[in-house]
Amino acid sequence: MAPRFAALYVPAALDEMNKSRRMAALQARALARLGGTVALFDPRGTGDSAGEHGVATWDDWRCDVLTAWRWLGERVSVPCLLWGLRLGGLLAADLVATNAIAPSALLLWQPVASGRSYFNQFLRLAAAQQMTGRSAAGADPKSLRAALQSGASIEISGYDLHPALVAGAEAVALGDLACPPCPIVWRETTISEPAATSAAAAAIASAWVGAGAELDLAAVRGPSFWATQDITEAPELITSTANAIIARVAGDAAGAR
Fold first, then answer.
1. β partners of residue 186
2. CA-CA distance, 15 to 186, in Å (whole number)?
3. String of DSSP letters for 113-125
4. Which of 9, 167, 172, 177 fits as disulfide partner to 97, beta carbons 3.0 to 4.6 Å?
5. What digits encode the pLDDT tens for the residues 187-241?
């Protein structure tokens, strides 16, 4: 049976990638049951891909997504969506906003709002590890920033980080991007009742809608599965995402036939 739509998944980074693999696989299977062809890949230096994490740059990961996008497009002739989680969501949004990729829809799962704030938090983790004796002395955010600015790679929580990876990501913020020129489905998870989107997401969404975006933003009940100590699932996120995609992308495919 011919596919109704296709999707390319851009994963989260660092340990968030590992914690979220199960959810990515569950969502991919859910989309496949709806007639989708779904491609999941590991950017260079991660997972099963070649290379060491410490030599990967932001531009490398951009190129990897573009390569995977072309690969998928050569194999299907149906509407294709770009789907990103956390830092992968920021990367996906950047590629769409700069017209490097023109998907039928952009799917964002809990996207990082700012590469700068993301790595600030990651560097603070080093300070916390130093206080608990799990990292070497001198692994404070200021020293790590100085090392990056000198062109040196740094290591945090077992991950080597190339200065060009950090600098490239930190140059991107969702609120500074041009409004993505395609329909956007944005989903967040929360343990709050009732489920509500974050203030940061609401502010960015409001700006995009004001600029003419077609945007579906919603929060669903579920854990922060990319950050929990144990591997966890968010079934409502899978259902909500599948319903949104079938209503937009797959619906477009049906109308085109």
1. 108, 217
2. 22
3. SBHHHHHHHHHHH
4. 177
5. 999 998 899 999 999 999 999 999 999 999 999 999 999 999 999 999 999 999 9
Residue-wise pLDDT for 171-188, tens only, equals 999 999 999 999 999 999
Is 93:186 a contact under the CB 8 Å cutoff? no
Whole-angstrom CA distances from 156 to 89, 120, 254 are: 22, 12, 47
Specify the 3-state DSSP secondary structure of 129: helix
Residue carrying structure tokens 């906003």: 97
Q: Which amino acid is at 135?
A: S
User: In the numeric block, which tokens belong to residue 30?
Assistant: 């859910």
The Cα 10–Cα 7 span in angstroms is 10
**Cα 241 to chain center, whole Å?**
14
Sign for the pseudo-dihedral over CA of 168, 174, 176, 182: positive
